[in-house]
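User: Fold this; tokens only.

Assistant: Input:
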Amino acid sequence: MFTIRPLESHADYLAAEDLQRAVWPGSDVEVVPRHLLSTAAQNGGLVLGAFDGDKLVGFVFGFLGAEGDNDDRPAMTRLKHCSHMLGVLPEYRDQHIGYRLKLAQREFVLRQGVRLITWTYDPLESRNAHLNIARLGAVCRTYKRDVYGSMSDALNAGLPSDRFQVDWWITSNRVRERLEGGRGALNLESFTSTGAPTLNPAQVSETDGLLHPAERFQKPEGTFALVEIPYNFQAIKVYDLGLARAWRYHIREVFELAFAAGYLVTDFFVESQAGRLRSFYALSQGEW
């Protein structure tokens, strides 16, 4: 049984540093130091931990911010919660700890009277897409190139740090429906039956057995469209960094075009095809 609570002691914050090293190994430069975590928590921010007994096994860190799309408006009218980091120890994954931490974050932000939480994640990470889009009900209309510059941790080294920025409107009917489990499971047929095309039909190479991006992709038209990403991007990165880089630039081009045309990411699903798991984003035209 896991306990979710705020980090409180110096030992808690030290454990949060160690947890970051385990989740994003390879570079102390990327670690948010305990003095910054503590300062944020004491000034309207949030640092929540998931504990297995006395052991910190996951944490989420966020702080108050302001939307930057219209700087002429007073900051108080653009207030949001910026969720900067969510991490779970590798040996504790697939136990819904990240999901529970996000629910606790939502409750904290609701008590502050804030309606919007934003964060960034790598759009090629299928596990994160499933949590953020499918389970939590966040949406995305913003693609950011190389947000953090060159990163040296094992998960990000060697690639531009492109990210989705997602919007989690925590009081919306959409989010409440997702959290209450009120939506049925989606699959490829759910979309192809409406005529929704896969914009970038990827192919598994007979040479290396890896999923390769389409050489060409179509411009999105109509109400819905699908975009495929690798199910396990980190495996591709380990076996072929050049292919991982090709996926980065391919996805960058596909989503920048789609977002510029007024589409937004509204769903994500994984489907088994010929014994392989394949991952798809669902895009919708217009407002959600």
